[in-house]
Specification:
Structural class: alpha+beta
Shape: extended
Distance between the termini: 76 Å
Helix content: 25-40%
Order of helices and strands: HEEEEHHHEEHHH
Strand content: 5-15%
Number of strands: 6
Length: 301
């Protein structure tokens, strides 16, 4: 009998100290998910709620979901092409399309980076015009970035300064800035602009009379549209078909305005608006035909 009483006492003592360090009320240190009430450790909450719920006012309610935007993408290649570096990409992806709430310093850095890249695109196209076009060609004969005729072509975009060396002319700086400002406003915020008055195709590109007057890629797109070629073509040639000298050798237009990757390298009919056909021997670039039924994209292979 004494052994039973002793055992019961030990069990009771163990029960009191299982959630703490001592059975002395002043010395109790309660374990995880318990709190001290009086001289005992009790559950932290009187109610244990199930997965996905939290205790509020004594009741289990559905826990609000916290969402985090990880990608800000409407047109492929905008963020990736205009912003260089993971820091810029991460900051851009975390913003709303309107940049609402973005700290001013961060916003200015993103805008400056994107416009620097755009100015380089413009000046590079104008420089190449003067390099590959036949002698006697004028700026109007070459590619026209975003539909804007180059202010000068070839080495004419530079001036030699005895102190600073070779630098851009003031006219080049001004023209490049004008191009960057106009195109930035067309592509940022990065949203799909759909003009229901034009055909559903990326090559219905002009919403206005020119890059400074609201032009843009606004016709929507199909799944098999070559969005990269279309974007390059607009940025570097205003989506013009070719220059006055055609698309023959040297094929300046296609060299500038295509990534050389086709939607489907095997079946040409599956491609829309690509400037250069892909390599049919590279089946890794090929893509099966899209479906006319939801979800429209072809099944995985």
């Amino acid at each position: 009998m004494k052994n039973l009483i002793l055992a019961a006492g030990l069990l009771g003592l163990g029960g009191l100290t299982a959630c703490g360090e001592s059975n002395n009320g002043d010395d109790i240190v309660c374990g995880a998910n318990t709190i001290k009430m009086g001289n005992e450790c009790v559950g932290e909450d009187p109610t244990t709620c199930g997965p996905g719920t939290v205790l509020m006012d004594g009741q289990c309610v559905t826990q609000p979901r916290a969402y985090r935007q990880i990608e800000h993408l409407a047109r492929p290649g905008i963020n990736e092409a205009l912003l260089i570096g993971d820091g810029f990409h991460s900051g851009y992806n975390a913003t709303a399309p309107t940049f609402a709430g973005v700290p001013a310093a961060d916003l200015q850095a993103v805008v400056a980076e994107a416009k620097t890249v755009l100015k380089a695109l413009y000046l590079g196209a104008c420089l190449l015009n003067g390099v590959v076009l036949p002698a006697g060609a004028s700026p109007a004969d070459g590619v026209r970035p975003a539909g804007i005729t180059c202010h000068a072509i070839g080495p004419a975009i530079w001036v030699e300064n005895s102190l600073a060396g070779v630098t851009l002319t003031q006219a080049s700086q001004t023209a490049a800035q004008t191009y960057a400002d106009a195109v930035f406003n067309l592509f940022i915020p990065d949203v799909m602009r759909i003009d229901t008055t034009v055909a559903t195709s990326n090559y219905e590109v002009l919403c206005g009379a020119g890059a400074g007057a609201g032009a843009g890629l606004c016709g929507g797109r199909f799944l098999n549209d070559d969005t990269i070629d279309v974007t390059y073509d607009f940025l570097l040639n205003g989506a013009a078909t070719c220059t006055r000298f055609g698309c023959g050798a040297p094929n300046q237009v296609n060299a500038l305005t295509s990534d050389g990757v086709a939607f489907d390298n095997v079946t040409a009919a599956n491609n829309r608006n690509n400037r250069v056909a892909g390599n049919a021997a590279n089946r890794q670039q090929g893509h099966p035909a899209v479906s006319n039924a939801f979800p429209y994209s072809a099944p995985p292979q």
